[in-house]
Here is the input.
Amino acid sequence: MLNINRVDKSFGNLQALTNVSLKIEKGEFFGLLGPNGAGKTTLMNIIIGYFAADTGTVSVDSEMMTYENLTMRKKIGYVPQDISLYLELTAQQNLKIFGQLYDLEGASLNKKIDEVLDLVQLKERSGDRVKEFSGGMKRRLNLAASLLHDPQMLLCDEPTVGVDPQSRNAIFDMLNQLNRSGKTIVYTTHYMEEAERLCSRLAIIDHGRIIASGTLIELINLLNQKETLKIQKNAHTQNKIQALGKLGHLSETDFYYELLPNDSYLLHSKIFAEIETAGIPNQFVEISRASLEDVFLNITGRSLRD
Amino acid sequence: MKAIYNLIIKDLIRFLNDKPAVLLTFVVPMALIVIFGNIFGGSGPRGKVGIILVNESSTPVSRIIETKLDTAQSLRIIKKYLPDDGKDSLKFTEDIAKEYVRTGKISAAVVMPKDFFADTSGSLKFKFYYDPKNEIESSIIQGQMQQAIMSGVPRLMPVLMTRRAVNFIGSDSTTMFIKNISSLLEKYFDLSADSLMRSFTQVDTAALMDSSLQPDSSGGTQMLSSLIRFESEQLVGAQVANPGLTRTVGGWAMMFLLFSLTGAATSLFEEKQEGTLKRLLCMPLNRSHILWSKYIYTMLLGMVQLFVLFVFSWVLFKVDVFSNLFNLLIVIFASSAAAVSFGMLITSLAKTINQANGISTLVILVMSAIGGSWFPVTLLPEWMQTISRGTLTYWSVEAFLQVLWRQSNFAGIANHVAILLSIAFLINFYSLIRFKNGKVF
Here is the structure.
């Protein structure tokens, strides 16, 4: 459905994208995972025709997506990272304006507005001004505005930024529902949990390059070590943790340390022996399955959160 | 104390990093001081107010007054015009001078008619035709006229009084009276009787040219005035119900129009900031759709704003906006088109909304000051008047004056409207090129 072929883009001296190629099939829920500034939004902007690539092509259903090709844009729905709504207007007024710009009118427009409001669970608030909505409600309406013209493909550019967990789950459910109804979804995020939960296939982007792509299993299989150790961060572990640095790549989050052991520590017994030697009690250690975070760490040597 | 110091430094750093704020704080007042200083401070040569002079009299006195007017500091005396065939310039006649005043080409005309100062005249006769389209300009013209004429009239006083006396007591009695007076003055004040006789009966042209005599500001002025017959005729605006507001409403309206329409045009920046511009650009719309819709909407907004403002001034202050409504609507259309183009230009030149606001405030205030929104352009120095004619404010203010004050027909505003629309076209053309390479999209 969407074919991105050898796309390059630079802004002055900054090379934003280098030789990016991706193929996304119809009906897929495709994730584009990368840290902030990796080039996700730039790639989205090129796909939607907001600006042109320096070199390379983007095609949808074998038809070139160009700056001038306006009819192609009807195939795509775009959910921007920002709340792209007229805040001083009501939800209904916003949807009517955007619907009319997609050549919808009269009864069919009203029907479509009802449908999307129903989907994002905002029907009761349709007459309220958007500026009175909570962050999560605005996000949902932002999504609804992109669905009015019933696009074949939905491009979501970090649609859950700044959203509370409840609204985030609601948005995930809506997107899954849309995907089940046959829509192709391209979803960018820097949260690996979101990518793992939602996407059937993924590409990891860093410094404007696609560094890995495949299903979640395929990406995890890129690692020799499929498991990681999580060690709680507390007074018992803090001054002893450095001793584990020689076992592999040690990273740190707010609440725990994460150890991705290197190849010489594939056996649990060897690792736990070292942990015991370091004086870290077992109760603070747990083994978990490797994640996309670990894949990213393994390939780039950096954490997604860096 | 240190906390206060640190907070002050914080505000200073923020201010210095906000270039539009710096621009508004320093450059705008400086620009306005330059303009006001040139008008009221007397720094540099002030521009002259044009006035037509028709001298139909062949007397030496009229020639001397003509010379005095020629050298008047604030007046630019115009005696010839270029006829429609455009070949050779001709001397103004009274009728053509009146037509020039009536159509707004000039604010005033002075005529010294054939009977300006005949052999038997008891007073000097002037005809003064004027269009008080601006009170300050009218005051300058009348003040300068008075100065030029009054400074010569005292020298003519004995002759004029003698001629009046002849009318009352007859020639013989007057001659006898002057002889007796002259003899007495010779006897007791050691003056020459012949010289005194001459001053009562002949015009001393050399003395008339003497500029050392200043107009009398004492009670004598009243007597001098009785020796000058000034036939004034207001050719324009005599029937206007509210002359003051009718003259100025166009200028103020244009300034506010520029502010509001520039704000509306720069809302493209707001849409970009809010993200809605990006959403629009992902729809089956191209950039020219967005630009033209913004242009047309802003222009309609400007037209409605102007019309409401004029209707409001009619309701409250009886400014007559309906007797020449068609032409008023044409000027409103052309002014709005030019004002929106200006807003589009600022939007295409600026990189941020703050920058756009800073630049537009500076340019609008300067254009309003030198374009005639605040005071007549004729008060400005010559070089500023030249710049003024390059501003859209000037042409708009003049067009509103033509329609509201002078009740001109379309021919009277065609030139102004054509210039305003040309400005709009050229600026739009340039802005569209800028938009293609600019930062807004």
User: Anything to note?
Assistant: Residues 157-205 of chain B form one domain. The first strand of chain B starts at residue 49 and ends at 55.
